Structures are given as C-alpha cells and as structure tokens.
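$ run holo --ligand "S-adenosylmethionine" --emit tokens
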Amino acid sequence: MSAQDTLQDLKDWLERNGGFLHPHVHLNKVDSGFSVVASDDLPTDSKIVSCPFTLAITKDVALQALSVLLDSPSPLKDLTSWSERQLISVYLSFHWIVGDGPSSKNVLTHFPYVKSLPARDKLRTPLHFTEAELELLKGSNLYGATLDRHREWKAEFEECRGPISTVDREWADQLTWELYLTAATHLSSRAFPSTLISQNLSLTSPGTPEPILLPGVDSLNHARAEPVSWVQSYLGSGPVADAGSCISLVLHNHVSAGAELFNNYGPKPNSELILGYGFSLPNNPDDTILLKIGGPHGGRWEVGREARGADPVWLNVLGAVQEGSEPTYDDHLDAAEALADMAQQLMDKLPDVSIPTPGDVREDVALMIRHYIEGQRDILQSLIEYAGAKEWHGDIPAEET
Ligand SMILES: C[S@@+](CC[C@H](N)C(=O)[O-])C[C@H]1O[C@@H](n2cnc3c(N)ncnc32)[C@H](O)[C@@H]1O
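-- output --
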C-alpha cells in the first residue's frame, strides 16, 4: 500500500467513526512521517480535525483489549499493574503481532491509525540514536536522561513479556524490544493529556493526567506559540461520555493555501523535544538546563536563557557558603565565585559540536544535538554573567555598606 493510500485510509476511518478532517486540508507524506497542508485558504478559527472520544487510545481501552486477547486464568492481575505506557505500547504492538484475523477477537480496533504511524527508521529520539550519535551527547544532561529512559523502558518491556508468554509463547517472542520501543516512542511523541477527554476539562483537576492518543488530532507538527485551541465537546452528564463527544483542534490564525498547518505542543525546551519527540528548534527561547546541587542544601533547579529562574539557585549557593545568620559581603563574593565555577565546569563538560560531524552521524541528528548544546552553553554563559553581576553589583548587606 502506498503512503498516500495509508493516509487516505486513516482519513476514511476517522470520518466513518464520527471524526472530521477539514475538506480543505490534506495529509502530505514527508521524510519524517507526514504533515498537514492547506489545499485552500483557511479562515481564522477553522476547526481542522476532530477525534471522537471512542477512538482515543487510553490506558483503559488498552487494558480491556489486552484482557480479552490474553484471556487466561491469571493475566488480568498482571495487566492491571502495568503503567499506561506499558498497556498502550503493547496494545499498539499487538496490531502488528496478532493482525486483524480471528485471533484479534475484534478488540484491536486501530489498524488504519497504527499503519499510518512513522516507521522505526524515521524516529529520531535518542533511544533510536546510533552509538556514535549518543556519544555526541556525552557530558550533557540529555546523555544521562537517555540512559535513564533506556533502563526504565527496557525494564517495563521485560515485565510485559512474562504474562504474555504464559498465554502465547509466539506472541511474547514477537514482542521484541524494537517493536515495544517503536510503540512507546509513538506514545511519547504524540501523547495528549487524558484531562482532554475527562468530564472536568480542568488542567488543575486532582491526579496526574495520563498520556492518551487522539488519532487525527495528533497529525500536525509543532510550531512554537502557534495560537490553537483543543476544544472539547463533552456530551452527557455522567463520568462516561455519550456518543458524539469529541475533541477538536481549532487554529486561530488564517492559513494560506499551500501552507503547512501547525499545532502547539506547549513551551518545551529542546531537551524535552528531543527526548520525547525527536526534533529540536533552533535558538529555542524555552531552553533550560537542569542544575543539581548536592549536599545538605542541595536540590534540583531548572534555569532558562538569560539566567531565568537563577534566583533560587543563587540563594541556595549563598546559603551554603554563609556561616552567620546574615550573609556578609565576603559571602556574596564566595557564592558568586562558586556559582560561576559550577557553571564553567558544566560548560567545560559539554561536548564540542562545532567540529565537523563524524561520518556515521546522521545530519538531522547532528543538527538536533547542535541546537541543544548551543542552548546549554548559552544558558551557562548567562549564569556566569549573572554570578558576575552578583559579585560586582550584588545586594550588599546593609550593615556593611
Ligand atoms: C504528533 S506527531 C506530528 C505528526 C508527524 N509529523 C507524523 O508524521 O506522524 C509528532 C512528530 O512530528 C515530528 N514533528 C513535529 N513537529 C516538528 C517540527 N517542528 N520539526 C520537525 N519535526 C516535527 C516529530 O517527528 C514528532 O515526533
């Protein structure tokens, strides 16, 4: 089946099931998957795409389907302890493993969607990097975060295979790490918060929102600060929505014919865009660096460009050097020096990405890493300047002035 047929299938399936795709937009095959393009001018506040709640892939949808497929004396107990990532990743993977024959027991209901998702070789999150590409991250926070994520996801994957192999050995064998990783990456790079399809759309509702997939609504790429709304039409009064409930994406800007349509994934630093989505933005104003300070006064802080958010770090460093009840002028000098030293040491550890990219590193990956490291350097430089300002123009305690 050609890529265009796959996308047409996705559109037909969405519409057959009560979804909507604006007649003046089309899905375009591009290198990294697909993009959504206007085939005609779109006025402001156009509703572009809607996904009925019934097509959303949630933890519960995955749990129900897997419980039916793995119907044996005991697996249910195991499945209820799985995280939403485990359930949704195995649910997506089972579309490939079980197929749409009788073994699917009619509970694998997302084939047109699953087939439209980017193939593994198109994914660019660091868990899909080659050794040489990962090596380029050494010395940065993202290197450690990648290793942590690899460890965590691999352990979750191993945990899933146990109950599956008690039911069907072949299915367990076919659930390879590569297949699970691909599905888990699809989830991390396309997830919406579950609050969007809950009765109370409040983002401050109790409990942490879970990641869910909203076929169709997830087809737009990201543009920073793009004015968009995710509009919920919740029908019914109980906790279970009535048929016809859906979530829509509305773009508030006018879009000219031929232009790409964008969603807004929120203000995210490149570390998060790369780790979760596999892309980066040049000179991303939302970049941050994670500072971890050990010791009794220790903690973790995120500092942004132009030393945004550095004040709590400064107070912490000052508190660590100060001996009396009030900081002295010397304490200020010591703290400024300690903060500048820390920033300089972190800067020295960052990889040098200005050198020509080694041949076995893909160009798009090298570019992402360059964007990220440039942001880290810029923030650390701003922190050094911030420390300098504290040293020369800092708050000097009243009794010493
Ligand atoms: C929710 S999907 C969007 C649809 C996607 N293009 C596809 O083909 O399935 C998110 C993925 O799209 C790609 N993407 C989104 N915004 C991007 C951007 N501004 N630049 C490059 N890639 C982007 C990344 O691969 C990301 O993981």
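-- notes --
The CA atoms of residues 307 and 383 lie 5 Å apart.
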